[in-house]
Design goal:
Elements: H1 2-18, E1 21-28, H2 37-55, E2 57-64, H3 67-75, E3 81-84, H4 86-91, H5 93-99, E4 100-107, E5 119-124, E6 134-140, H6 144-157, E7 160-166, H7 169-177, E8 183-187, H8 188-197, H9 201-204, E9 205-210, E10 219-223, H10 228-239, H11 245-254, E11 258-263, H12 268-280
Parallel strand pairs: 1-2, 1-3, 6-7, 6-8
Antiparallel strand pairs: 3-10, 4-10, 4-11, 5-8, 5-9
Helix pairs in contact: 2-11, 6-12
């Protein structure tokens, strides 16, 4: 009887030891740009299922429309990692920095592992930026970080911008070229591609302002409570996301070429910029 009991206890212990770790990933869709949300959700579910199989964990994903719903579930222990836009992270940085540290960001440039980006403000050469006081300025639709940068330039130059959205950065560049607007805020990557495809653009357009190279794209963070070995497995899977068909599909939908591991310490310059602009322009946070 004692032997049977000992074998039973031993079996339970081994079962728990080898049981796959269960975790739930939160995805905050608010301000995630450049994707079809329905396609993104489907691709995310497929990738999470494949990743779970590859690294022997039981991972699921929960979709949220805003930070409050996510954070409520996080405090209840229902999720322990998050994928979000940089704007959501910056707005709630104090809460994230308290409970999260390691994570990953996506790399947009296929020719480099550099994940940091800069914004450019472009205009036409026939506009006298020094004398003109009011402008129609474009930024990518739903990109609130871009709107924040535009507001900063407006504040620095003591000029007035009528801010409008554009469906894409490439369209914004053409709208400036064809005199449908005066200014456009774009990523340097978009400018480089446009100039390479059409060198004539650089003869009529020029860079008025540029930020430092401090900004990131989509961010994922892992809760400090997640075991380190599980963090390692998850982050390694993201680093090698391009090795599976499901991973490559996700990369295509979210328009990135890889991921790199980061920590919240890597966002210091971006946070400093956001905090300064938000303090100088408190109204912008009320206009979301």
């Amino acid at each position: 009887m004692k032997l049977l009991f000992a074998l039973l206890i031993s079996g339970l212990l081994w079962s728990n030891l080898w049981a796959a770790y269960t975790t739930n990933i939160g995805f905050i869709g608010d301000h995630i740009t450049e994707v079809n949300y329905a396609n993104a959700k489907s691709a995310m579910k497929i990738w999470i299922k494949q990743m779970s199989k590859d690294i022997n964990i039981n991972a699921t994903i929960e979709f949220y429309n805003n930070f409050d719903d996510f954070f409520s579930d996080y405090k209840k222990g229902k999720v322990e990692s998050v994928i979000m836009s940089p704007y959501v992270y910056l707005k709630y940085q104090k809460k994230f920095d308290k409970d999260f540290h390691r994570g990953w960001v996506k790399i947009r440039n296929e020719y480099s592992k550099d994940y940091l980006m800069k914004y450019l403000l472009i205009s036409r050469r026939d506009i006298d930026y020094t004398k003109q006081r009011e402008f129609i300025a474009l930024h990518k639709q739903e990109d609130l970080l871009a709107k924040l940068v535009l507001t900063d330039f407006e504040h620095q130059d003591k000029k007035r911008y009528t801010i409008r959205t554009s469906t894409s950065e490439s369209k914004a560049i053409l709208d400036i070229f064809f005199k449908k607007a005066d200014l456009a805020l774009i990523h340097k990557e978009s400018w480089d591609i446009a100039i390479e495809l059409n060198p004539q653009l650089s003869k009529k357009l020029y860079i008025v302002h540029k930020t430092d190279k401090i900004f990131v794209d989509m961010i994922s963070l892992l809760a400090n409570t997640m075991p380190d070995n599980i963090k390692d497995l998850y982050l390694n899977a993201m680093t090698n996301i391009n090795t599976s068909e499901q991973g490559r599909q996700l990369m295509a939908i979210f328009k990135f070429n890889g991921t790199v591991e980061v920590s919240t310490d890597d966002f210091k310059a971006m946070k400093k910029y956001y905090n300064r602009v938000a303090k100088e322009n408190p109204k912008i946070l009320q206009e979301e």
